[in-house]
Amino acid sequence: MTSSQKATLTPPTFELKPYLLDRQSQVEAALDAALPMAYPEHIYESMRYSLLAGGKRLRPILTIASCELLGGNSQMAMATACAMEMIHTMSLIHDDLPAMDNDDYRRGKLTNHKVYGEDMAILAGDGLLAYAFEYMARATTGVPIDRILQAVIHLAKASGAGGLVGGQVVDLQSEGKPDVTLETLAYIHAHKTGALLESCVVCGGIIAGGAPVDLQRLSQYAQNIGLAFQIIDDILDITATSEELGKSAGKDLQAEKATYPKLLGMEESQRRAQELVSTAKDSLNVYGAAAQPLQALADFITTRRN
Ligand code: FPP
Ligand code: MG
Predict the structure, then answer these.
(1) Is the CB of 164 under 6 A from ligand 1?
(2) Does the Cβ of 165 fall within 6 Å of ligand 1?
């Protein structure tokens, strides 16, 4: 075999850092354009304050990556990717409210209600929730309408009482209870964090026109990284500083929340997160080198510091 033949057979090693930087800037620009200022300015300012506060943009990047894995492109997926970040942002605005976690800092900045007041923060969350669905249904181009509808249904289900809302309810009800089981904790994580992450990945696949078997594999991948993501979140709440996290560290202990480190210990939690990431990556092996971005994103989840 000649060296040029060898070069075409060896898949190039995937560099996550430039990939993330490139996607993050695409997503930032798309979010900025998706939600322009309008009347009444105060509410748009408040929605834009949280939506454009930075962050890893992991969810929209997952949507784009899974769309590309199944033969779609970033343009087709971008409106759906933006909708994912809008839902994520609104859930954090509401999560930070005094009635819930009562947090002062998010993404290194004052929380929405600290700047705009509780009334505006509730409405900013409501506005982002409604706009996410309007935007993905209206601004998605080059995609058959039945796929868009299927993605809207998937995301609506993931956001409601059977998903994010349900997970947050059980989380709030479990606070301060000494006897929360691993099963309840798994429910909280699968719904509060996992449902939206799964929807990001699966909706990217739906937009690309993936077959049921592809969507099943993407769902497996996403459920595993979703749980790993939350276990790492629990670990970072203990090991990282508030500066690293851009939000208050040590909140779980303070609120007497059930967490993986509390129930299983630090070492076992770390081992489980690693095992989940490895299972997630395996479910995409069938796609060969095309799965490298999603597999590298899975690794990133366990090595991140914020
Ligand atoms: C952060 O968890 C909170 C969430 C991941 C979701 C919260 C969900 C809601 C408030 C329901 C939103 C409503 C709709 C309709 C989607 P955390 O408190 O463990 O993490 P943190 O330390 O980052 O605050
Ligand atoms: Mg919180």
Answers:
(1) yes
(2) yes
Contact between 132 and 139 under an 8 Å Cβ cutoff? The reply is: no
Distances (CA, A) of 125 to 44, 87, 129: 11, 8, 6
Please report, for residues 58, 139, 235, the alpha-carbon distance to residue 54 in angstroms, rounded to integers and kept in the order given: 11, 22, 22
Q: Counting atoms of ligand 1 from 1, which one is nearest the CA of 160?
A: 15
Exposure string of 252-285, with b = 16+ CB inside 10 Å and e = fewer, is: beeeebbbbbbebeeeebbeebeebbebbbebbe
Distance CA(61)–CA(68), nearest Å, equals 11
- Global pTM reads 0.94
The b-or-e profile of 115-132 (16+ CB within 10 A means b, else e) is ebeeebbbbbbebbbebb
Which pLDDT score, from 0 to 100, does residue 190 have?
A: 95
Between residues 102 and 247, the one the model is more confident about? 102
Domain 14-303: CATH class, spelled out = mainly alpha
Residues 30-79: pLDDT tens digits? 999 999 999 999 999 999 999 999 989 999 999 999 999 999 999 999 99
* Contact of 79 with 136, CB cutoff 8 Å: yes
Which atom of ligand 1 is least distant from the CA of 237?
22
What average pLDDT does range 242-253 have in this prediction? 81
β-bridge partners, 110: 105
**DSSP letter (8 states) at residue 163:** T
CA distance 97 to 112: 8
CB atoms within 10 A of CB 251: 15
CB of 129 within 6 A of ligand 1: the answer is yes
Distance 99 CA to ligand 2 centre (A): 11
> Among 120, 161, 155, which Cα is nearest to 134's?
155
**What integer pLDDT is reported at residue 241 of this predicted model?**
83
